[in-house]
Design brief:
The chain contains ten helices and no strands. The protein has 217 residues and is mainly alpha-helical. The termini are far apart.
Length: 217
């Protein structure tokens, strides 16, 4: 029996690498790291495994490159710039809204990376989880430090500052998963912007200092 080989369309190296990353992203998001083989990735891309190993020394290196690939997009840099602008002008509600908006936007635009991270958690795959922590923890600490500063200024109540950040990010993430992955319809045809505004108001109303009643003249 004659072995058939994939028909290879010649591509510039950069284009081929991007194609392999996109293909690997698809499969890792569908089957996780442990359930995906380089042979499957090669077949889906229409190349041989040898082509993969020209660009990546092994599956683990390909997986790491996939994680870096989605995190190097301009969307992340745009969001970081937006949050910095909110912090520079002490816009507490704007910052919370930006956190919720970025969370929802990520799920809506391309949920594959979120699925990869869920698989990594289920598999106990430390490479994927550790990679995410190295990116997320420094960002979290910047946001937490901002809350601490605003609490010291008396603008926010003295709740645990990390819990405040987790509150807005967590509710937005849960909503995104329920409506984007689990098939639930938004309640009352709620738009994403309406949801973001509602989540922001709920958190802000809970962390702003209580207004003192006006004294009678």
């Amino acid at each position: 029996m004659i072995e058939t080989r994939p028909h290879l369309n010649r591509m510039p190296a950069a284009d081929r690498r991007q194609q392999l990353l996109e293909t690997a992203l698809d499969l890792f998001s569908q089957k996780g790291f442990g359930g995906t083989t380089t042979k499957e990735i090669a077949a889906a891309a229409g190349v041989t495994e040898a082509i993969i190993f020209r660009h990546f020394p092994n599956k683990q290196a390909l997986y790491t490159a996939v994680l870096d690939y989605k995190l190097s997009t301009s969307e992340l840099q745009d969001w970081l710039a937006e949050t910095k602008a909110c912090m520079d002008r002490n816009d507490d509600a704007g910052l919370l809204g930006a956190i919720a908006r970025n969370t929802l936007r990520g799920y809506r635009a391309d949920p594959r990376m979120e699925r990869i991270l869920l698989f990594a958690a289920l598999e106990g795959h430390e490479l994927g989880l550790g990679h995410h922590r190295r990116l997320a923890i420094p960002i979290f600490e910047v946001l937490r430090s901002y809350v601490v500063r605003r609490q010291r200024a008396g603008a926010l109540r003295g709740f645990n500052p990390g819990a405040i950040i987790e509150a807005i990010a967590g509710v937005a993430q849960h909503y995104a998963m329920m409506t984007g992955m689990f098939g639930y319809k938004p309640p009352d045809d709620l738009s994403d912007e309406e949801a973001i505004e509602t989540f922001t108001k709920i958190v802000m109303n809970g962390i702003q200092p209580a207004k003192k009643p006006k004294s009678k003249a």
